[in-house]
Amino acid sequence: MEERKVLDKAQQPKATGDMDTEAFRRYGHEVVDWIADYLANVGSYPVLARTAPGDIQRTLPAQPSKQPEAMEDILADIDRIIMPGITHWNSPGFLAYFGITGSGPGILGEMLSGALNVNAMLWRTSPAATELEQVTLDWLRQMLGLPSPLFGVINDSASSGTMYALAAAREAIPGLHIRQQGMSGRPEVPRLRYYASQEAHSSVEKAGIVLGVGQEGLRKIGVDSTFRLDVAQLEQAIEQDFAAGWQPFAVVATVGTTSTTSVDPVPQIADICKRYNLWLHIDGAYGGSAAVDPTMRWVLDGCERADTLIVNPHKWLFTPIDCSVFYTRKPDVVKAAFSLIPEYLRNTESADDAIPNLMDYGTSLGRRFRSLKLWMIMRYFGQEGLAARIHEHIRLGQLVAEWVGESPNFELMAPTPFSTVCFRAHPKGLDDEALLDALNERIMNNINVTGRFFLSHTRLHGKFTIRIAIGNVRTAEQDIRVLWEAIQAELARAHDVQ
Ligand code: PLP
């Protein structure tokens, strides 16, 4: 049997501690070099992993190592086993779902937060993480043009944030005491209802499942021809529900819906919420970041009246996943919904409301030092740098929309308010919807197998729709031009176009 390579002093039989400093320094440099090379060449990997389900699992040992392994071997397996199974979200050709970016300052921030390894559950368990989160989110508030005061915390995902927002909304219903008494077996508790458009993200519905409101507790409201929530239908639904004995309690409006990036008419929705005393939550997970660009401030019009608002820097603010910002004008209500302090977490500061303990604003106790990477990104790019990058993505999106609009063989399937284009091939003379669906699916799949790009789809009015979502900092006009050529060539190959 080959003799084992055991390299670090820490791995010698008598040692019990962590990797020794010199070994850490050596491998650390190696890893940073590896990352730098990866980022320099990320566009040369096939964007979509080419492995089949189970391939990676089969390559890995079924049992854990009994003996220490050499770091060289572990790092070599990153290239040998892990990399073939990576779909490259960092690639300039990643244009599926919503693009994201692991930017340089963000990656360095992740490395530092891993090294510091603080858990910011209480102020005292990490004063710097707690206070930096407050300051960074106040900076972001200013960048987004939102009024002060606005309390912010960072969660892992918009999905958690929306669930927390609706839990707070439920807590705000007077007289029900659901936090203490629950909802089941209580005939005096009316059935609760909240509202969102048919285009709202699935996390809005999942929140109702978790909160015991149930899927039927979410009433999905129809949209207008541009996929924006129809305000007249919303008001009618609320009236009907009150009359039928439901207890309406919240509306979720979306700034940048997942399929088409439509922006719900927030000012009018805010009026309705005021009229009926409903909690207004804004899901700006994708579109909210655009307000960093002063020419896009309008996307958050009316959001200053929201009770809670979500923006995901891990989507379109060049922040490595995870980092989802949750803002509220009513931190006391969110805290009333979630704060539960067992004896072992009590301390002298916990009674002081001016010193937040971040565990009080959601279900998770422990929390990573996520503000560090966001702070580094905001300082490194500056507001103008962030705005310029978002502006450029929007310019590229508009360019693609123009090409689609001008082509006799393609059609836009929705407006393009940001940098995500929804379109399909629709050659003259081909009007059978089933054939059009098949044609567009084939075009998308053929583009994806090239490895140069990764596109995803949605269905609009039942029709298969291809999406090009530009949001990675490395995506340039040249990439988009190559993609458009490739899409046209695929159409010509799949269908006899004049
Ligand atoms: N809201 C919208 C509009 C989204 O598009 C998405 C994801 O794409 C989410 C919420 C969920 O985000 P997260 O992955 O942070 O839970």
Label this structure with key terms.
single chain; 498 residues; alpha/beta; Aspartate Aminotransferase, domain 2; 2 domains; 7-stranded mixed sheet; 11 strands; binds pyridoxal-5'-phosphate
Q: Explain this structure to me?
A:
This protein has 498 residues and is an alpha/beta fold. It folds into two domains: 18-48 and 87-102 and 383-498, Aspartate Aminotransferase, domain 1 (Alpha-Beta Complex); 119-368, Type I PLP-dependent aspartate aminotransferase-like (Major domain) (Aspartate Aminotransferase, domain 2, 3-Layer(aba) Sandwich), CATH 3.40.640. It has 15 helices and eleven strands. It has helices at 21-41, 55-59, 71-82, 104-116, 127-144, 158-171, 178-181, 202-210, 231-243, 266-276, 313-316, 331-338, 371-406, 433-449, 477-494; strands spanning 151-155, 192-197, 218-221, 247-254, 279-284, 308-311, 324-328, 410-412, 420-425, 456-460, 463-469. β10 (456-460) and β11 (463-469) form a beta hairpin. The mean pLDDT is 95. Bound molecules: pyridoxal-5'-phosphate. Residues 98, 157-159, 201, 203, 254, 256-258, 283, 285-286, 312, 324 line the site of pyridoxal-5'-phosphate.
